[in-house]
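Sample pair:
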Amino acid sequence: MPTLIEDYAIIGNCETAALVGLNGTIDWLCLPRFDSPACFAALLGDEEHGHFMLSPVEDARVSRTYRHHTLILETLFETETGAVKLIDFMTRADGNCNLIRRVQGVHGTVAMRLDLVVRFNYGSAVPWVSRTGDGRIEFVAGPDRLMLQTTLDVDDHNLRTSADFEITEGQEIDIALSWSLSYRALTPPLDISDELDALENRWRHWVGRFQGAGEYTNIITRSLITLKALTHFETGGIVAAVTTSLPEQIGGPRNWDYRFCWLRDATLTLYALLECDFVDEAISWRQWLIRAAAGSPDQLQIMYGIAGERQLDEWTVPWLPGYENSVPVRIGNAAAGQVQLDVFGEILDALYYARTKGIPADDTAWGLECALVTHLQNIWREPDDGIWEQRGGRKQFTHSKIMAWVAVDRAIRSAEEFDLPAPLDEWRALRTEMHALVCVQGYDTELGSFVQVFGTKNLDASLLMIPTLGFLPADDPRMIGTVAAIEKSLLVDGFVKRYHNQQAGDGLPGSEGVFLACSFWLADNYVFQGRTDEARALFERLAGLCNDVGLLSEEYEPHLKRQVGNFPQAFSHLCLINTALNLSRASGPSIQRGQASDTQPQQRVVLPAGADDVPPR
């Protein structure tokens, strides 16, 4: 039986990350970056595709936790003969990525087994193994090199490295696996104790910047640490998840590579970081955003690589059978070539918010923003692929048009509030036209709700963002009706689906679980509407879906009661943080973001001539 998605924990070094199972086995690790080919790919196959097992030989009771306010994982195994603690963490230095595992005897004697199967290039490349003069073991395939450092007497046979050993109370055994480029000189062996102490101090110093948020402080802190773990230390880019192809439906084809950076996360990320006092990370993310979006506006992508790379070609891995036979296994993401109007709104909203928090952008950024608005003027009436990256053809998505409005609205606010040069009369007229068109074409009077696509009756959970974006207030009858319609149509066991897959014609067979971010958005709407008890109850149910170490994937399958989708998911943790802050503060992030522009009355909409025409398809 494959390890459940929720039975994994993450360790990382802000350059890459590994997934450690409840059984002490590492089944996923890409080196040296999040998006590099995996050297342990058992997550999407079996142990022959690479894994690093370090577990008791006998059955054991297992419990685990992260060392307080760190990403240092501690797993306690209790057997009939004793107990042992496994401490897992990662560091980096001098071009090396270090995966370190310390085994500590707690009491009694425990028989342990180490089984290391290194397979570079997503489980396909068997390395050449040799021993160095200082006792380390070297694994080499092309540019990749792993060095195994341990005092254990390990054996190499059948293309794997293994050891059987016993550990007693008070004894410590260290195992380090370090990646470096094979054509560079070896660095000296690691001092494991120094590495561990230094890492613990760095994490606690970092977390110390967060001043807390009442009863939700602990769960917010763990989500912030997870976001930090998904952040590249040098580029500032934040990957959506550390995995690829974990299925949205077990056995289904909705399996995507999430090891990239999405622009749609931009504003939520800034709110989460800045509201929790992580200014340096917010600045790094804002700078990543500006660099990635720089260039010709008509070439703007919805996602980029960790350093802003644009070429994210999608291909499938034929030798990997997929998680629980969920195929295909995809590398790269073809959605990078889609057209999504929402990214214009995300960029302009993020940069506006950064200015309001005292992080001014330079003249280059304002020039880019103006160029984006100019391009948006020419394309906003065109259909696009939508926020959910559907592969069923471009449509007139209501959320996309709202985000186009957001782009123009935030550009106007930036110009007005920060005295920036802009054709304000032209932009204000455009903003009014966009707003009126959405209210006519995106709203169905029979349903009493906004709809997913102009002229249809399908619902979409992205419509829950309308008050958050400041497009309409939460107490507007149209928004109250939209929330009610979504509650009636898209709830499964109290959680929110994105949309009805087959009704929407999204171009793929099968279905998916409930989307956790959307359920947090519903809780936000309850806060806006004064339904605080319902908001808190839903939030606490969602928080209860976190695994034993506080991690969430992209989706949840209510019928199977399992997490599904890529893991851990930045979007889920971002929404958790923001909803928790909305519940614990008088003016939370969603409330701040949703404040309407003084120059854009939301209740009184004047329909300009021609605005009732459906935009061209």
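The first strand starts at residue 8 and ends at 12.
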